[in-house]
Amino acid sequence: MPEMPEVQGLVDFLGERVVGRTITRTSVAAIAALKTYDPPNTALHGAVISGASRRGKFIVLSCGDDLHLVFHLAKAGWLRWYETLPTTIIKPGKTPIALRVALDDGSGFDLTEAGTKKSLAVYVVRDPAEVPGIARLGPDPLDDAFTREVFAGLLDGKRTQIKGLLRDQAVIAGIGNAYSDEILHAARMSPYAIAATLDDAAIDSLFAAMQATLREALAEASGKPPAELKDAKRRGMQVHARRGETCPVCGDTVRSVFFADRSLEYCPTCQTGGKMLADRRLSRLLK
Description:
This protein is of the alpha+beta class. The protein has 2 domains: about 5-135, N-terminal domain of MutM-like DNA repair proteins, CATH 3.20.190; about 150-270, Helicase, Ruva Protein, domain 3. Helices cover about 30% and strands about 20% of the residues. The chain contains 8 helices and 10 strands. The protein has helices at about 5-20, 130-135, 150-155, 160-165, 175-185, 200-220, 225-235, 270, and strands at about 25-30, 50-55, 60, 70, 75-80, 95-105, 110-115, 120-125, 255-260, 265. It has a 4-stranded antiparallel β-sheet with strand order 1-6-7-5, with no helix packed on it. Strands 2-3-4-8 form a 4-stranded antiparallel β-sheet, covered by helices on one side. α1 (about 5-20) packs antiparallel against α7. The chain is elongated, with a radius of gyration of 20 Å. The model is unreliable at about 285 (pLDDT under 50).
């Protein structure tokens, strides 16, 4: 799933190529992906793109102040850029393409989604805040206003596991399954630590790990085309999606806990005092 660093990489890439360009056509191939009807997607035809920005994991292409194309790539979505857009006709149900956007210089992009579970979402709105997922977003962890004190306030009183809290978009925007694994590994913290029980030293460590991990990932994503972003993300991972490999910090074996639709990865030596996490839903540390 694309998370904040990759989404920002896509925003930067698009910003250099689409701002100032006119949208000549939008083709919706997956009707279920289009979540709005007023304005219609045809309102984008002839509109000049004035800006590209990110809200959490959402990408916003603005056409002035009152028309915006917003999309969320979800778990299996991606953006495919073309310097020269293909002329082939998109057949709904016969392609992974959900949306095609054509620009006046012949370039454009497709939003694609792999797999059978379709979650990619596209919105055409007058204000990005009309998108429910954006309206619910918590603060951006790399915003200047997101201080250690703000972070501590978000943890205060939360009787939830820290892994889940970091992934909760209503608490902190942009962090998903992969970077929460990486942040917790860097902080040497169990994914099952309860947020409200963290002392000042643990909060300091977690905040520093979050800032460093995300900034390093942003730097790695910067300037890369969409086709290279996924590989760049994988190369930077220390534990996520590296089950059975050697922890680069201590040499222990990276372990996984599997859930219904995802897994988490961690290092027992670095994060849980050498203890293995039970591999079942609602896992607890083995005695």
